[in-house]
Amino acid sequence: MMGVDLKAGAAAGQDLGAEGPVGESGRQAPGPSLSVPGRRRVERPGERAVPLVLALFGLASIGTTAGIVLVLVTEAVAFFRHVPVLEFLTGTRWTPLFVPRNFGVLPLVNGTLLVAAGAALVALPVGLATAVYLSEYAPTRVRRGLKPVLEVLAGVPTVVYGYFALTLVTPALRAVFPSAGVFNAASASLAMAVMILPMVASLSEDAMRAVPDSLRQGAFALGATRLEVATGVVLPAAFSGVAAACLLAVSRAVGETMIVAIAAGATARLTWNPLDSVQTMTGYLVQVSLGDTPHGSVEYQTLFAVGLLLFVMTLFLNLAARAMVGRFRQVYR
Question: Is 223 left (phi over 0), alpha (psi -120 to 50) or beta?
């Protein structure tokens, strides 16, 4: 009886399993399909509408982006009918609201890069160090408590950071550097560094935590210290995610508005002194958007020309981050 039951079970396994019996060649013959012929999957009411709704949402986001780009390009083309593109991109004086008018955008680009570079100089190393601590050193309880607190900084309104820079950071800087102005690039950079710090730390920590523990254990087995494992194994393995986090944070700093509008000043000048007052591209957009500039004038159209240039710069940074992720991404199993 026992033998008969075993044979019956084996036959049932061959009928229901995904693999068939072993043939003469030693390979398993494909088993019969589990699908029942003549029967179709029953769709619930409204199931066919789900792909359509999702496609509409996707098209809405694409259409919004296309509309923004269309408005920027249309108005910028109208501006460049009055001002040559070469003069706009290479001019060193920016006074479109005063007489004589000058439309060289380099001072605005200089101020934007100066503030963003100062913020990156502070936020990137501090953020990476924080990510290494959370990923490789912090106990589980500390990580669970510290990471949400760190991410709270990302939810603080940027106007609060602006007034924080103006009322706290600037007086501290002027106490150390008396030559610093009331509005200066260094103050805006420090406040902006605090703003983008959670992005660098959180995204980098997520990339490091995705590295398999087998790589860590292998390095420990070879006698590496925890610091050597963190810097020589984990960071290179998570390089694509860390680099993308850094580039996205820099892109966020380039496009920041309220901090620079409040703390950096409104003086468009070519300078690399962080203690001077500067005007960024977003700061100028805020100035023009106050409503004092006549609609349809050349001064008003500078809003779209500067906005288009800012869009191209941030798009380039985002594409660079995406390309870097695709170039250095590691897939672990």
Answer: left
How far separated are the first and last CA of the chain, in Å rounded? 46
Instruction: Check if the beta carbon of residue 98 is closer than 8 Å to that of residue 220.
Output: no
Q: How many CB atoms lie within 10 A of CB 49?
A: 9
Q: Which residues pair with 22 in a beta bridge?
A: 28
Whole-prediction pTM: 0.79
Report yes or no: 282 and 310 within 8 Å, Cβ to Cβ. Answer: yes
Each residue's pLDDT tens digit, 287-299: 887 767 787 788 8
Do 204 and 234 contact (CB within 8 A), yes or no? no
How many Cβ atoms from other residues are within 10 Å of residue 325's Cβ? Answer: 17
Both structure tokens of 218? 């292998």
In the chain, what percentage of residues exceed pLDDT 90?
Answer: 50
Which amino acid is residue 120, in one-letter code?
Answer: A
Contacts of 282 (CB under 8 A, 6+ apart): 112, 255, 256, 257, 260, 261, 310
Instruction: Give me the residue label for tokens 């050349």.
Output: 298
Q: What is the pLDDT of residues 213-266, one digit of tens each?
A: 899 999 999 999 999 999 999 998 888 889 889 988 999 999 899 999 999 988
Average pLDDT, the chain: 83
pLDDT digits (tens, 9 = 90+) for 4-17: 443 444 444 444 44
Residue whose tokens read 């990302």: 154
What are the start-end ranges of the H helices in the chain?
Answer: 2-16, 49-80, 85-90, 106-132, 140-152, 158-164, 170-176, 185-209, 213-221, 226-229, 235-237, 239-254, 258-263, 281-288, 298-328
